[in-house]
Amino acid sequence: MDDIGRKSGHLMLITPERVFYAGLLGRPRERCSGAFNIYVAIEGGLWLTTSDGRESHAEMVAMLPNTGHTIASDYRSVLSVVIEPESVCPGVLEDLAARLSGPEGKAFADRIRAAYLALREHHAGDDFSSAEFDFLCLGEALPQRVLDPRVARAIVQIGKFCGEPVTAASCAAEAGLSPSRFLHLFKEETGISFRSFRAWKRARHLLHFANQDINLAHLAQDIGYPDSTHFSHSIRRFYGLKPRAIFSGSRDLAIYRSNRTGGANSGWTQEAG
């Protein structure tokens, strides 16, 4: 970890299917992440308000993907484990959410806090697959979903973020399917529409640049947003924060990235702040 990150304790590990975040939570505002989120208080507790008005206070809360909620902390910082839903078998996240809110919850929270301490001492060059991430944070590897190869290829294309934005028509053509058949297959395999999936991945890609001094209008264009207004609205919907607020609160964040999804070796790299 760089000197700034070591001093603040703020860090983020990003893999294609997981994210571990330890940093500022920001002003409480409704968010609707496209992934499964586990929030753990570093100290004190967390205040959760769901979109249907339910309120609760606990040291850890879990939110299923695409569920509107507001999260606040007794302190400024929070730990967060993020799991991409298309990477695990159907039903796994619902079962995990039930376990996290049950008698095992305390053990899970303690393990995630221990994972944070371990990551603070991490040295570049270690390996992190999704299974290794899960063992570190949860004590077990979540069952991996096996996607139709045509959908898997489309997901890889969406995640490249280079050149023109990936369209359903281009993915359908590569898969040898009509656009309507491809869109049906994509939702059947992932549980979400192609358009919603792409919107979330676009917003998720922003995380790679969060600690950089960068022109946000240029970043929005590079990621594939049609304009700055659409960019701001989308990021605010997913994260409950405007892009500028995310970047302002991430100046002391050490960001690490691993590019592997399976169990094979992979180096992970630290991104300069």
Task: Supply database-style keywords.
273 residues; three-stranded antiparallel sheet; 40% helix; seven-stranded mixed sheet; alpha+beta
Kindly describe this structure.
With 273 residues, the chain is an alpha+beta fold. Helices cover 40% and strands 18% of the residues. The strands form two sheets. It has a seven-stranded mixed sheet. The protein has a three-stranded antiparallel sheet with strand order 5-4-7, with no helix packed on it. A hairpin with a 3-residue loop joins β1 (11-14) and β2 (18-24). α6 (168-175) packs across α7 (179-190). The longest helix has 16 residues, at 105-120. The chain is globular, with a radius of gyration of 18 Å. The N and C termini lie close together (11 Å). The model is unreliable at 263-273 (pLDDT under 50).
Assembly category: single chain
Radius of gyration: 18 Å
Share in β-strands? 15-25%
Low-pLDDT residue intervals, each spanning 5 or more residues: 263-273
Query: Strand order within the widest sheet?
Result: 6-3-8-2-1-9-10
What is the overall number of helices?
A: 11
The biggest sheet, with number of strands, parallel, antiparallel or mixed sense and barrel status, is: 7 strands, mixed
Tell me the overall shape.
globular
List the helices and strands in order: HEEEEEEEEHHHHHHHHHHEE
Q: Distance between termini? A: 11 Å
